[in-house]
């Protein structure tokens, strides 16, 4: 079941946040800060933009969005996926349900456009495609089209260790 997150979900969301951070490839650039992520979770939760997947025994996934006016027209509200993550052993179709739930919550907050991110991610030797390619396929299957690509330059790299 997908439901709004509650404060009791925070510890498991922090664990999943760390895993997402590493899988997305961010850990090589900067350390994950639990306190910062917990604060972000609280803000998104209060805004009604933070969801979890609960299988009745445990929280096995999470997703969040933000909704804000477009810089080029304040009457257009853009919803953006902040993150979504499902524990690896449960990745059997929950992604599409989370995408739909994020779309619904963004629509409820007035969004007329919704963007999803497909990070390249950390390379996995056993993977047939990159994380970004797999996410791109999932998004395309649900009516999304490629809108832009993001390029990054890291000015300072700090090890998480």
Could you explain the architecture of this structure?
With 161 residues, the chain is an alpha+beta fold. It has one domain: Aminopeptidase, CATH 3.40.630. The protein has helices at 10-23, 34-46, 94-108, 131-141, and strands spanning 2-4, 50-54, 59-70, 73-86, 113-115. A five-stranded mixed beta sheet has the order 1-2-3-4-5. A hairpin with a 4-residue loop joins strand 2 and strand 3. The longest helix is centred in the middle third of the chain and has 15 residues, at 94-108. The radius of gyration is 16 Å and the shape is globular. The mean pLDDT is 89.
Secondary-structure map:
Blueprint: E1 2-4, H1 10-23, H2 34-46, E2 50-54, E3 59-70, E4 73-86, H3 94-108, E5 113-115, H4 131-141
Parallel strand pairs: 4-5
Antiparallel strand pairs: 1-2, 2-3, 3-4
Helix pairs in contact: 1-2
Task: Return the CATH class.
Answer: Alpha Beta
Q: What is the molecular shape?
A: globular
CATH architecture: 3-Layer(aba) Sandwich
End-to-end Cα distance, whole Å, is: 36 Å
Can you say what the CATH homologous superfamily is?
A: Gcn5-related N-acetyltransferase (GNAT)
For the sheet with most strands, the description reads: 5 strands, mixed
Q: Give the oligomeric state.
A: single chain
Helix content: 25-40%
Query: Radius of gyration, rounded?
Result: 16 Å
Mean pLDDT: 89
Do you know the CATH topology? Aminopeptidase
Number of domains: 1
- Summing up helix and strand content along with how strands pair, one would put the structural category as alpha+beta
Q: What percentage of the residues does DSSP assign to strands (E)?
A: 15-25%
